[in-house]
Amino acid sequence: MTVVELSDELRPVARVPSGASLVEREAPGGAVVELRAADGSLLVEYLPKQGACRIHASAVQLRADTDLSLSAGRRVHIEAKEGVELRSGASAFAVEPERVTTVAERVDTEAKRIAQRAGELETHARQILERAERSFREVEDLAQTKAGRLRLVATETLRALARQTFIKAREDMKLRGERIYLE
Question: Which of 26, 79, 89, 91 lies 20 to 30 angstroms, CA to CA, from 16?
Fold first, then answer.
């Protein structure tokens, strides 16, 4: 490694055989240490006063043989113009400019409150199980259920309230009960 003196604005430069160089220069916020490629382009900049380090490159890869940890005292920001993807085995989570995709064998969500707002919500499943202490659904115009068979089971009381009620069967209709009141 050779050390070379440059202009007053740049402190000593260390240059390695590949042509990359280490430069320290003064900036308004304090000293800046830079690692530059052989062509002079900035690769890494370290701001000692702020304790910040920035990597400038067309592509950056971080690889670890075992674990890789990212942590921050406040927040971790990840941003990309075309998308962000997280993968582990067969599971994946992708964020694209107009779409978020989750692929997994199982997705568990636990929260005190979840709010969903959508222009359209579509669900495809082989089976849907819902369990709740209470369930309320409010539909402004039409609520329709289309099924091969439909069963409503209430351990105590079943009420249907409407201004008008129509029940129509293509064939037979049966009403069973110990007592049937018609008013």
Answer: 26
Q: Distance (Å, rounded) from C-alpha 110 to C-alpha 93? A: 18
Output the six-digit token pair for 79. Answer: 């941003």
The rounded distance, in Å, linking the Cα atoms of 16 and 85 is: 36
pLDDT along the chain (183 residues), means of 10: 50 79 88 89 91 90 91 92 95 96 97 97 96 96 95 94 93 92 87
Return the biggest CA–CA distance within the chain: 105
CA distances from 34 to 3, 14, 26, 74 (A): 15, 11, 11, 26
What's the pTM value of the predicted model, to 2 decimals?
0.64
In DSSP terms, 25 is beta-bridged to 10, 32
Domain boundaries, the chain: 2-55, 78-106
What is the spatial order of strands in the sheet that 30-36 belongs to?
2-4, 13-15, 21-27, 30-36, 42-47, 52-55
Residue in 79, 73, 103 with CA at minimum distance from that of residue 91: 103
